[in-house]
Amino acid sequence: MARTAIHLPVTYRGIPLFAASADILIVTASALLAGTFFHFTSSQQGGQFSRNMAAAVFVAVLFVAAMWARKLYEPSRLVVLSDQIRGLLGTWCGAFLLLASGVFTWGVGKELSRGTILSFWAIGGTALLAHRQIWRMYLPGALANGAIRGRKSVIVLWDEPQSERFSNLLVRHGYRVIKIFQLGPSAEDNASTLDGVIGFVRGQDIDDIFLAPRAGSVVDLVAAANALRVLPISVTMIPDPMLADLVSNPRYELGSSMALEIQRQPLGMGERAAKRTFDIVVAFTALILLLPLFGVIALAIMIDSRGPVFFRQTRSGFNGRPFKIFKFRSMTVAEDGDKVGQATRNDTRVTRVGAFMRKTSLDELPQLFNVLRGEMSVVGPRPHAMAHDRQFAEAADNYAFRHHVKAGMTGWAQVHGARGETDTIDKIQRRIDLDLWYIKHWSLALDFSILFRTIVVVLHGKNAY
Description:
Largest sheet: 4 strands, parallel
Strand order of the largest sheet: 2-1-3-4
Strand content: 5-15%
Oligomer: single chain
Shape: globular
Order of helices and strands: HHHHHEHEHEHEHEEHEEHHEHEHHH
């Protein structure tokens, strides 16, 4: 038996307004539920109901306005659950921070208790996440089967094998593909085809034309765009992955010309200042708190084996600049040169105290001094010995990009299990890929997250030897 499509009283263009309105209702209902739970709507509380509603309106307006400004109500983004969760949680928590600030400033803490605010936050956040899950489950199918009326579109393609893929892509995002035109390598044939597109669109109720040029066909793209200017409708390009990555880069005016940034410095001046402040605060605080532990570890090393307490080895840092890394000595050798053997499982060079330190990563703690000296960061790609650096650079792709930021005591690769011996190219490449993701997506929030996740990883002790 065929299922009947559930039709919402909304078109594709009305989905953002519909979703935003639903969020307002959810936030308001959550505030009332939290207030009722704490007896804020009882007759003995007088004006508490109105204060509760005022808080609900305050949070709802802030939340919906911020989500709308970030375009998170667009249908194409409502179906991306990970995108929605990140945006929702950040915006929801931000709205409540402002609410808490307002409660303190206005002096209404007695009327709005912490219990009510926390209940409001928990109930509302859960309901809003459930709302997103409903959209993610319902919207793709509703657009595909016509339960929500999409925009009529003509898609103009070069490479024929891509026709089905692009058509499916548009359908999943609420577009109705009316006709597909095929452009080829001949400029004369393309001119005739574009005339056909113009004639077809003039006789139809069409909203959009999509161009999906083949890689490197800039001249053909410009010719097609110029020909379609006579139509009073939007023309949108779906670039190939290489071109999409390029046009997503920042651009600015350079006199009368437009400049496109092909490669940017990984961190801007403000970002570098913020990260350096984070490093200094964390390293200085950790050194003060861990100073007694440093003394215990130093004594244990001296009792366990002969040799210095600290071990220094040359590593590559920012822009490939060499520096001496500090570690507690955990081996009977102190290799530093063209030939450095990686530590392996059950390595006979590791001392008894060293085995424990490496298992718990205590041998890495002296690198806090490297952080204070500005040679390292608390979070960043882990530095390798110079000998391994040269070896990995020859064996793996994009290895040098790891040096676009300072080396770190811990990193995105380490919290994803990419630590320990790198005895295969696949292991090296995975670590590189994770490090490059971190560089591309850096933020202070990400550094905080990695720092806390490192504690869990260290306690687990996997791949550390």
